[in-house]
Amino acid sequence: MTVTENPPTPRSPGRTPPAARAARKPRGEGQWAVGHREPLNPNERMKKDDGGLNVRHRVETIYAHRGFASIDPQDLRGRLRWWGLYTQRKPGIDGGRTAVLEPHELEDEYFMLRVRIDGGQLSVAQLRTIASISRRFGRDTADITDRQNIQLHWVRIEDVPTIWQELEAVGLSTTEACGDTPRVILGSAVAGVAEAEVIDPTEAIDEINERFIGDPSLANLPRKFKSSISWLPDTPYESNDIALLGVIHPDHGPGFDLWVGGGLSTNPRLAERLGAWVPLHEVAEVWLGVVQIFRDYGYRRLRNRARLKFLMADWGPEKFRQILETEYLKRPLIDGPAPELPERPIDHVGVHKQWDGKFYVGAAPIAGRVSGTLLDSIAAHAEAAGSDRVRLTPYQKFIVCDVDHDRVETLVRALRSEDLEVTPSAWRRGTMACTGIEFCKLAIVETKARAAELITHLESRLADFDVDISIHLNGCPNACARTQVADIGLKGQLVPGPEGELVEGFQIHLGGGLGLAAGQTAGFGRKVRGLKTTAAELPSYVERIARRYLAERTSRD
Ligand code: SF4
């Protein structure tokens, strides 16, 4: 039918033509709970066609035998993430080509493999297993990530089933380490050992893991879902989709304060308190309710609006709590007080006393970069110090727990001999870096090596800098290393070089830091128009910022 065959109906006064009404009708956000079941973008179609968890069988029965070329493209760039696998960037492709090349042109025939370590808790045997896998199957690569995972690189699909078997034999996995799933749960790296801890929530983290991780009914979320459960506020709780933080209720005693809807990336938003107090035995149930809300009401139409923070921005904490109580928990939550929040992030570097009289020792590799060989050494040093517990922190550091006082010094010296500093400079202590262009397909700039150069420069020029400072290097706007909540947040991008040509560089965010909800610090860093540096000039740029800070501090005193 053509337009001329069906002339427009004459418009009666005050009435809107049906076609115009249809044009104005909201398209919906792809929320399942309001009937939008039809996939609205290719990612949603892929997940509907076949669940991400189902790819494991194909890896074990087909891909590991027939090799990289046999992998279905939808599995390769989609479902394998449900098992912690991403293809890694082909070496030698500069950041200027990241946005213009097709995915298959950017990717190598190797994988990045993320080992899920909920709460960052590892035994010596588990650490040795990861170390051995790294050496045999990952070219001895390993990074401690800012989500308490360990990431390996150069993994071949042929080796993946063996890696899974070896990890699972010691109680580790890569299940839902990536993908649109409930990812690794952050926890206090000193849970169960800290003097200041009132309740150790590890049992709640374990319960969630056992009951819900790998559950197909929670494995098709609109996007990733990040959790933090800790008594101490020593995780970046505010940047998680859900956070439960320790608090003492005046009538009910110790429990957890519930926060929802945080996330950084390109539209950063801090989590908000729902004003609810949750006892330890209800943590898993409340966590489940929040994940189910995300699954059912989360926006699925546009990937860049699919995180829970966008739903929270529209609903607000009161409505979120009401839906949680009425539709999911079927009961009201108990109102609760706000927890005390720290002025600065707590990274546990150094030597600290445990509640039982022993000590834990926190050390700083450079921007989380270690290796399988180094992880093996850490395991050996921990064992020699009488410890069977090693913890990873969300600041790319690690901790050896349960050390007797008379073994602390020997352990500190042993770690130092591996360049793992227990008393690092402020620069080393406060610097984190994401994966960057070395392995990440989305990267525009290099980060890990730059972080090392930056630390070396600042340690030589400002060795006595005596202020806690956080410097977070990110290879692109995705902010995996939390650009916006650092004192100096660095967002990788191309910037004009000395001759006007585009070169690797960073946009600078100044003055971030956690604790916003308590009104204690500034929150997101200020992104000032024009505040950029080339990567080559970064060390001297940061040095100038630090010197200006010191000069202004002195003039204020
Ligand atoms: Fe990759 Fe960008 Fe995330 Fe860095 S911030 S790991 S470059 S996606």
Automatic annotation (TrEMBL):
Belongs to the nitrite and sulfite reductase 4Fe-4S domain family. It holds the Pfam family NIR_SIR_ferr. PANTHER family: FERREDOXIN--NITRITE REDUCTASE, CHLOROPLASTIC. This is assimilatory sulfite reductase (ferredoxin). Catalyzes the reduction of sulfite to sulfide, a step in the biosynthesis of sulfur-containing amino acids and cofactors. Residues 1-50 are annotated as: Disordered. Residues 105-170, 352-416 form the Nitrite/Sulfite reductase ferredoxin-like domain. The keyword Heme applies. It catalyses: hydrogen sulfide + 6 oxidized [2Fe-2S]-[ferredoxin] + 3 H2O = sulfite + 6 reduced [2Fe-2S]-[ferredoxin] + 7 H(+). The gene is nirA. Coiled coil: none annotated. PROSITE patterns: NIR_SIR (PS00365). The lineage of its organism: Bacteria, Bacillati, Actinomycetota, Actinomycetes, Micromonosporales. Its cofactor is [4Fe-4S] cluster. Residues 12-21 have a biased composition (Low complexity). It is an enzyme of class 1 (oxidoreductase). Residues 35-50 have a biased composition (Basic and acidic residues). Keywords: 4Fe-4S, Heme, Iron, Iron-sulfur, Metal-binding, Oxidoreductase, Thioether bond. Residues 178-331, 429-552 form the Nitrite/sulphite reductase 4Fe-4S domain. One of its GO terms (molecular function) is sulfite reductase (ferredoxin) activity. Its EC number is 1.8.7.1.
